[in-house]
Design brief:
With 497 residues, this protein is an alpha/beta fold. The protein has 2 domains: 258 residues, Aldehyde Dehydrogenase, Chain A, domain 1, CATH 3.40.605; 184 residues, Aldehyde Dehydrogenase, Chain A, domain 2 (3-Layer(aba) Sandwich). It contains 17 helices and 23 strands. The chain has a 7-stranded mixed sheet, with helices on both faces. A 6-stranded mixed sheet has the order 9-8-7-10-11-21, sandwiched between helices. It has a 4-stranded antiparallel sheet with strand order 5-6-22-23. The longest helix is centred in the N-terminal third of the chain and has 18 residues. It starts with 8 loop residues before the first strand and ends with a strand.
């Protein structure tokens, strides 16, 4: 049997074979086949990537907005042309179904399309004669070398939440994708180079915690973006902040879906199925808690029956509803939490353990799992399970549902199904969660709006995408100037914030 291919680093526009002494197998989660080997880059290789980005910044920061816009236009074309290949790489190393993977590429593409508008996004302000004979204006300027650290669950979309806007604003970038499924992230970066990014503007290094920590602490890195677990995100934010860097960390969640009795049951239950079990629950915006209000509790048996019919198979089966979990460790953790729920006294209405898929007997499969009677103090409620497990609770009123959700420390996303506009307005005004869906189960906004998770799901005041992303990847310089009538400078002051 031939050795699995070794995944290169991408430094200075070149594919570099790492000199690493530590390598990790990249596993197909449906078969346990080793499909690639990824290096844990050396400190010297990380320094080389940052040095290339620092050198490239000197010219890239002065490139015209139109130049950067044209690169983004070409990148979106290349992503469209290579959607199939990107999706195949995602499915091979992550496990999600091909339709899910293609949808992920589409969401990433949406951000790139938004970056094509950089000429309108990166605008300053100007006031002539703000005081007598004094003009004041702002310059929206790039920061320098920036870094992104991404989780495994969206190997294309999460990098797109980071580098397209960052480089479109004139920064250079070092990306550290997840070591569990790095190939799609690397191919995406190569497409960006093909689109016209100069060598060194976008670099890719692989590794684990050591590389992530080094990026947070490197003296030449100005800003760090992270998307992943709460445990890792908290550490990333602390390290980067202690090192004086700008940082954003989008972290864990416990997303709720509230169903009122006036909702359309056909719509609500079908939407809840996809939100809870799509991508095998491995997404930070997955619905992991359903709150049935009043008489809607009577719909639970029908929901369980529909969940029982969902098809579990390898991601290459386009008719599958959910594929395997990313790793054996992930499967063991999810099954352990299911057992914990049983021991805590939750009612196991549907048990997804022990799933066997013909032809993929070694796959990391866990089927749809539903717990009823879940209390707020149970571990299956307080921890993010990150698998196809839905906790269900019932309350009497919408006000009770809002109180229950607001008591949870996380604030990533929440949804309400209703046909009552007054109830929807009450909900959106009183719920303490950053992203709200009304008859939308997973309220991830379109890319020209910011991703606005809150409370325990986010550290940093600016999120990815939209106007907030441009603010995060730039600094505002304010110029106050007075000129004489003959063109001689009398007084000029510059302040920065």
């Amino acid at each position: 049997m031939s050795e699995a291919p070794r995944i290169p680093l991408l430094i200075g526009g070149e594919r570099i074979q790492s000199r690493a002494t530590e390598w990790r197998d990249v596993i197909n989660p449906a078969t346990q086949e080793v499909v690639a080997r990824v290096p844990y880059a050396t400190p010297d290789e990380l320094d080389q990537a940052v040095a290339n980005a620092r050198e490239a910044f000197k010219a890239w920061r002065n490139s015209g907005q139109a130049t950067r816009m044209r690169v983004m236009l070409k990148l979106q074309q290349l992503m469209r042309e290579n959607t199939g290949k990107l999706a195949e790489l995602i499915t091979r190393e992550h496990g999600k179904t091909l339709p899910d993977a293609e949808g992920e590429v589409g969401r990433g593409l949406e951000v790139v399309e938004h970056a094509c508008s950089i000429a309108n996004l990166q605008l300053g302000e100007y006031a002539e004669n703000a005081a007598s004979g004094i003009d004041v204006y702002t310059l929206i300027q790039p920061l320098g070398v920036c870094a992104g650290i991404t989780a495994f669950n969206f190997p294309v979309m999460l990098p797109c939440f980071m580098f397209p806007i960052a480089v479109a604003c004139g920064n250079t970038f070092v990306l550290k994708p997840s070591e569990q499924d790095p190939s799609a992230s690397l191919f995406l970066a190569e497409l960006a180079l093909e689109a016209g990014l100069p060598p060194g503007v976008l670099n890719v290094v692989h590794g684990g915690a050591d590389i992530a920590n080094a990026l947070c602490e490197h003296r030449d890195v100005k800003a760090v973006s992270f998307i992943g677990s709460t445990r890792v995100g908290t550490e990333i934010y602390r390290r980067a902040s202690d090192a004086g860097k700008r940082c954003q960390a989008m972290m864990g969640a416990k997303n709720h879906c509230v169903i009122l009795p006036d909702a359309d049951p056909e719509v609500a239950l079908n939407q809840l199925l996809g939100a809870a079990f799509g991508a095998a629950g491995q997404r930070c915006m997955a619905t992991s808690v359903a709150v049935f209000v009043g008489a809607s509790r009577d719909w639970l048996p029908e929901f369980v029956a529909r969940a029982r019919q969902l098809k579990v198979n390898a991601g290459t089966d386009r008719t599958a509803d959910l594929g395997p979990l990313v790793s054996q460790a992930a499967k063991a953790r999810v099954e352990g939490l299911i057992q914990h729920g049983v021991e805590e006294g939750a009612e196991l209405l549907l048990d997804g353990r022990g799933i066997q898929v013909s032809g993929f007997e070694q796959g990391n499969f866990v089927g749809p799992t539903i717990f009823g009677g879940v209390r707020g103090d149970m571990k299956i409620y307080t921890e993010e399970i990150f698998g196809p497990v839905l906790c269900v609770t019932g309350v009497d009123t919408l006000e009770d549902a809002v109180d229950f959700i607001n008591a949870n420390p996380n604030g990533n996303g929440v949804a309400l199904f209703t046909q009552d506009g007054g109830a929807a307005r009450y909900f959106q005004n009183n719920i303490d969660v950053g992203q709200v869906g009304i008859n939308i189960p997973i309220p991830v906004p379109v890319a020209w709006f910011s991703f606005t998770g809150s409370r325990g799901s986010k550290l940093g005041d600016l999120g990815p995408n939209g106007k907030q992303a441009v603010q995060f990847w730039t600094q505002t310089k304010t110029v106050t100037a007075r000129w004489s009538a003959h063109g001689r400078t009398v007084n000029t002051t510059i302040t920065m914030r």
